[in-house]
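Hey, weird one. I pasted the 2-keto-4-pentenoate hydratase sequence into the form twice and got a warning about non-standard characters only the second time. First submission, copied straight from the form history:
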Amino acid sequence: MLADATRILMQLRQTGRTMQPITDLPYEIGYTVQREVAEALGETVGGWKVAIGPGGVPIAAPLLASTIHGDGVRLDLPADDSIKIETELALRLASDLPPRAVPYTREDIVAAIESVSSAFEIVIPRAGEPPEIPFGFYLADYLGNGATVLGPPTSWTPPPQGCRAQLWLDEALSATGEHPQIDPLASLLAYANCQADQMGGLRAGQIVITGSFTKPHLLRKARSARGQVGELCPVNVFRLELPSIS
């Protein structure tokens, strides 16, 4: 099961296809596959995508260091219906948050953050998304993360609960929304208290994204995107070029 899942995901990353069947995975094996894929790619962890999974279980997927980009980056993205963009809040940790016996409080999380920025997550699901594929396999596939783009950082002040974000595609307002947990720190707090990954956990200097303020939005042929959470500086991403669709 473990070897098959790692092999399938490496095939998908390298060729975009696989002939092997995709099956569900226990979360523990999903986390092991995350680690094995990173090792096979020679990648290091630059941050984390944390979320509340099915049944209210806190989950996480690594943001590979090579896939984290600065504001205004130009990315080579296909113009099809597989690529989605999400407006996020990115938190840079000032200190480690190791697993511990005494549960972390929200105040502990606030104290562990150094800076904050508007951000984009580029979702590139290599095997598909639930319910098309089992959630355990989606976890192994880094919860679909393809890239993360960070806006200019701002000194850390906790955002007000219920703050809203906006997404513009080609300068046209395309979506607005608020965090799915209302409190953008909720999923980070939840995961800090039940860490299960096998890649070192939450470390100082890493970036953490905690959930999309705007629902996943198809990028399609848009050449540029701009996002802003609350009063933070906007984040921008551009297409390197627009490939033709056969």
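That's the output from the first submission. The warning seems to come from a hidden character in my clipboard, not from the data itself. The longest strand covers residues 113-123.
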